[in-house]
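Colleagues,

Please find the record for the two-part complex below.
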Amino acid sequence: MASTAQIEVRDGNIVAAVQDFLGKLLADQEIAGIFTPRQLEAKGTVMPALITSADKLATADPLAPSFPLNSARQVAQLTRGDLDGGLVAVMRPCEIRAFVELIKLNQGSLHNLVLVGVDCYGAYDNQGYRRVMENNGDSLGLEGSNSFIKKAAAGEIGAGNGVPGLARACLACEHPVSPVADLTIGLMGADLGSQIFIEASTPKGEGLLSRLELKDAAPGDARDKAIEALVAKRKAYRDAMFEETAEATATPEKLADYLAGCINCYNCRVACPVCYCRECVFVTDVFSHEPWQYMGWARKKGALRMPTDTMLYHLTRLAHMSTACIGCGQCSNACPNDIPVMELFRLGAHRTQEAFEYEAGRSPEEAPPLSVFQEKEFSEVTGGLD
Amino acid sequence: MSNRIGVYVCHCGTNIHPKVNSPEVAGFSEDLQNVVVGRDYKFMCSDPGQDMIIRDIQELGLDRVVVASCSPRLHEKTFQNACLRAGLNPFLFQMTCIREHCSWVTEDSEEATCKAKHLVAAAVNRVNYHDELYSRMEKVHPDVLVVGAGIAGIQAALDIAKAGHKVHLVEKAPSIGGHMAQFDKTFPTLDCAACISTPKMVAVAQEPNINLMTWAEVEQVSGFVGNYQAVIKQKPRYVDMVKCTGCGLCLEKCPTKVPSEFEEGMGLRRAIYRNSPQSVPNKPVIDATVCRTLNGKKCGVCEKFCPSGAIDYEQQEQTLTVDIGTIVLATGFDTMDPTPMKQYGFGRFDNVLTGLQFERLNNAVGPTGGKIVKKDGTPPDSVAVIHCVGSRDKNHHEYCSRVCCMYALKYDHLIKDKVGHHVKVYNFYIDLRCFGKGYEEFLTRVQEEGVTFIRGRPAEITDKARTPEEEGKLVVVSEDTLLGQTVRVPVDMAILCTAMEPRPDAPEVARRFGISQGLDKFFLEEHPKLGPVSTATDGVFLAGTCQGPKDIPDAVSHASGAAAQALALAARGEVAISPTTSWINPDICIGCKACIGLCAYSAIEFDDRLRVSVVNEAMCKGCGSCAAHCPSGAAQVKHFTEKAIFTELAGMLAPVPEAPITVEDHAESPMAEAGPQESVPPAAETEETATAS
């Protein structure tokens, strides 16, 4: 049974309560640094930072509704060797799930790392965030985060409430709480006017939590119910999105239309936390064709769309990462031409992972399906032979 | 500068042309990018055909060659060598198969021709991106490891030792000889098994080039062809092999008796035992599971009586590592346990025996001293011999065990010979397969001895009598398919000719030595006809029944074959390693290690310093598992690079012009009129015919 503690929220300032908790963590003798989103001076930008000095925690803001990048790769970078001290990484559940996939690919490690998950109501995509900023005189700051969380908890985010909606990836996300995190900053089911929860769900988390000497809490079933209700809502949204996307991409022609605006900028690949290759095969000579080849292809059809290999690029990426896709939506966030790539990739990933009875990010112990050999698998495809 | 490609389209006599219009395909190829010349010819593999390619390389300055003909398996080497003779690196050659993949399997001529064009376009595309590759030479360690010392292992070890190479012969049993040591007579000549195998066993023990390790097992194998290391576990024998004289006093004094495996459960052995006084080595071993002293009970009798102080209860398991260049696996077979076939009552009826039990019954040093008697000690008046028990049976083994017909005939003869000619012997058979030298003659001889043959697989053996004659007998109930009626044959004894099957630990052994099992679970040879002793792992060879059921002559020949293969490598002292291995680009590899887990040959290691995966080229077989998984293309198989494969696919998928190109368009083959074409030796065909059976 996980043990739960609480942090007091004073004057309705939830972010301050979180900062208070982070301060306690940083004071622990085994913790040398805290990786967390942080408000920058520049135009309300929120970016992750590695914080080692307690006074810098005053700008730490894991609750900001901005999600400019999935930080899994940053944490991977920090944990792939000796870091000289213990690290606390404060991450969204989807970031943790991406990080779990990277661990399996030997890109990061749990050694000397405490994963702190934050209950996630979702975030705006970059465009939505900019619009919210503009409405607020180019500044959201910590106060903006507080008010966002309160509104989100009350279900008051969305067009109907005069605020832009959350990113579609977030609306379709059925994992608002991380099952892998050592410690969770629990917002859901808490009376945000007075307290937030700190939940420990691993021995590592328990050990650290007991050292912090926080006040015990009993969240009761309010928390479970709040999470359950949110997940149900999101699953319904997700399934409707899958249906819509499946229809829109049902044939090669439709898929080509769907991707028609793609300019092969590969931003979606760069933004993807689980696209971990050092060099993508699409920038190698494999896809650098001879001039006469282009002419040959053009002659065969009468016209050749340029740049070429667009559909092949997306299909290849689907093949390469759909077992690891955790649905964070950064691909769509990064697309300059508003192609709904997240919708397509989540659909492909969902079906692929379902086929392998695998769920990306569920557990570091679960081996990626293509890295293991099973003697009896997909007999309907292999001809029914054992 | 663009490549200069020559395309050569073969007719293969009438095998390809006219089903595939070879001249038309050659003409089509000339319009492909970078193709300088496209020719067709009756037999491209013949000397004039090869000369045509060589001359073009030299005169037209070709730097790439494509041949469209039979399967690369057949003639890739032929054409690669032709390129080599013309001074072209053999890896700048590409072969595409328009016979097996095209003319033989396509009914419509136009379709076949169109498919051949696609295949040629793909090959031409791909060959543009071939690199020059060079084979690498590795030294071969002269020593050989032979695993298993049954008759096959013994034969292989002796052959190799005679050639002057050192052999490490590892046997997991306490003595050598395998199943053959259990037999009495051997078909068809009826010479006694001991008389012919004991001298070989003694020769093994005395051969200075053989390091015999009994009661030992190979635990682990690492390395690659020519450079293997084997870790061998020497189990504790609890008997000092040097001090023990093999006097056998301990065997008489030991108070613990258990059923003997060697006697197939028909006799008893002591806790300290050896299979027979003729065992090699003839030093006993203590069975630690039943020995009183080793299980903490009071005893120590063997130690007390041993005149040479050879008993050592403190002996510990030891491991040693040997370096070898090649490995011969001769791990043998087991006979199927017929207990699950309840209809035959094995284990339920005293006088239902397996073939091996009957061998022991018949053996002069067996439990009855060689007397063929029933459980009650009296000789049988009638015996049923049931063939194909577990063989040729969909519920058990679909294959034929190949020896049962012959040993059944041997039993027929021995029963008549030893118990008397009045004894009625009934064979229940499906077919009689007497294909070996002297086998058919032996069948005739046994038939003349008055043995009864009933064609049919018995439904059951029962002790429920229906008539007074059946009282107290075993009744074999069967259909006689020649008479078309059911028969009930009362007998005193029934012998089940049980199937030969792979050892239960075969999957584990296969993994340890990096080889595969076939559908029948026996070890898989490289090629069923042309590579029956080699395996997919270079330097690992198969001898005897671990590859499939065999009789003694076949097992011995197979073993000599394996020995010759191992010697070929050992004697040459070096081996060419194919360059078509995987290579992982350290600049691109991100070190995810996925390929390491996927490599079936353990050929990839992780460089902890550079944090990248590295292929050991000597162990890599170029299978491409790593390349198929690696998303960035850091891992690629040389000669099968992503560039080459993608381009090949593009060529395959590109539409070919519909209108046939006129034949006159393409370069006329200089050989077209040369000589009577029928006289060109169709090398491909003779080889095919010989091996198609």
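The CA atoms of residues 454 and 654 of chain B lie 64 Å apart.

Comments are welcome before we finalize the supplementary table.
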